[in-house]
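Human: I hope this is not a bother. Would you mind checking the protein record under this note? Thank you for your patience.
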Amino acid sequence: GIRAHQIRLVGDHRTEAKANQVNCFDCWLASYSETQHRVTCYLKLHQAANHQEDYHLQIEISQDQWSQLKNQIFPWQVYLQPERIMVFDR
């Protein structure tokens, strides 16, 4: 598991240095929910979502980040920091 506020969005993934990073994944916006200060984005990995509940990750970003991100073309790219991932044993 990883907490929603610890998932990072990276810049343009088309640059070679970023595209080759470990734990970077292409993603598409399935839906989002805004509050006064934060935006929750529901992201589908590897391909576009079929509907608003078709997502893998939920991320939390500021309204400032959202205003910069919302007009960028897809796919976006997320980075899952290895030190932030929690492994659970059954």
The two ends are 13 Å apart (CA to CA). The chain has two helices and five strands. The helical segments are 16-19, 63-69.
